[in-house]
Amino acid sequence: MTDTLTMSAAPGARPCGGRCGSAPPFEFTMAFQPVVDVRERRIYAYEALVRGPEGQGAGWVLAQVTEDNRYAFDQACRVRAIELASRLGLDRRLNINFLPNAVYHPEACLQVTLAAAAEHGFPRDQITFEFTEDEQIVDRGHLRSIVDTYRRHGFMTALDDFGAGYAGLSLLADFQTDVLKIDRMLISGIHTDPSRQAVVSGVLLIAAKLGMSVVAEGVETAEEACHLVGMGVHRFQGFFFARPQIERLCPDSEIHWDLVCP
């Protein structure tokens, strides 16, 4: 696999308050999975997902992340995603995952990202930072500070895997991201499951009242997608539309739009 990574910081960037340490002692690259907008019939964004140097899944990579290298790994993922997106000519939004517990000081830890975006000419207002509800957040005030800092610099933020993790609705009560990504656990079989339909309807109502856009994640069947369209969802991510592709951007022409929105 080409362009795998043993990472160093972008030139001239000061690492996260000097605390990010050396480059992570393992190689990785990125796959890109589309986030589609069925109303506009176009790909809205691409999420950058870590993969091993020989195509190993994210689990293989994340198993090598330790307390000693998680800060460097978090920074390396950001830079690598921006580098590859720029090289591949990405002209949509770029979604980058980050580890909230790896950010000591939001402003300092953002400098490597800002430097990478400037170096590669990638517009910062096309970047969305996703953090997962699945990672337990001890200090919500710190997380709010991260989100506020990213917004000041022109980035969007997204709460990923909503419905699968620790915080649930209480996290939304404390602060709101720009995007809410509903986890597959709430999406699977929704077309035949009244309980899931009721829960997702409630989530959509809350998101609308809080001014958050919604993405349904992990959509694997036309039936799930069609039912969600009927509920008012128009942005999706999942194997039904496109699988992640290593160092490649799936074009609009490869999405089977007519299966959902004839």
From TrEMBL:
SUPFAM superfamilies: EAL domain-like. It comes from the Bacteria. It comes from Novispirillum itersonii (Aquaspirillum itersonii). This is EAL domain-containing protein (Putative c-di-GMP-specific phosphodiesterase class I). Residues 6-258 form the EAL domain. InterPro entries: Cyclic-di-GMP_PDE-like (IPR050706), EAL_dom (IPR001633), EAL_sf (IPR035919). Gene3D superfamilies: EAL domain. One of its GO terms (molecular function) is cyclic-guanylate-specific phosphodiesterase activity.
